[in-house]
């Protein structure tokens, strides 16, 4: 059974990125997958402290907070879903703080090591990005930046589900093309 960890990066519990992510996760469950969903805005955690303990004394982040369980769950997951609205041309601050903590997944000599990750290879990343801006050329660099880093962790064949021009709560749910894309993506990664 494939395990999926879904991180909701929106501060809005019924936001558009959340709606797409939940539809994806429901599709995964219908296909026999196991899903754990974490709403980052409900967790209490700090960003990376640049203490370097994960490179000198431990093979994981030294901080003990609500992200500890999330970081551990991802170690066991086959699929990671990162869902975020676009705020000021980037991911939400909730998601960015999480991403900074993934630094602990890298081995101490990650810059020169041909296997820079502490995670097992072959994981899949589903990146869900929503934005109120309807112009697809705006903010089209966000996924590529994070895809680059997650490939260091062993996430390959990563998929972007992107919704442009969705602002108000519920808009994404009315878009049949987005809901179908979430279903099709679930079928692809579960296949």
UniProtKB/TrEMBL annotation:
Transmembrane ranges? none
This protein's source sits in the domain of life called Bacteria
> What are the NADPH-dependent FMN reductase-like domain coordinates in residue numbering?
3-102
Q: Which GO terms describe its molecular function?
A: oxidoreductase activity
Asked whether the keyword Iron-sulfur is assigned, the reply is: no
What Gene3D superfamilies does this protein map onto? Answer: 3.40.50.360
Q: Known InterPro entries for this protein?
A: Flavoprotein-like_sf (IPR029039), FMN_Rdtase-like_dom (IPR005025), ISF_SsuE-like (IPR051796)
Signal sequence annotation:
none
A single Pfam family it belongs to is FMN_red
Q: Which UniProt keywords apply?
A: Flavoprotein, FMN
This one is known as NADPH-dependent FMN reductase
Source species of the chain: Desulfonema magnum
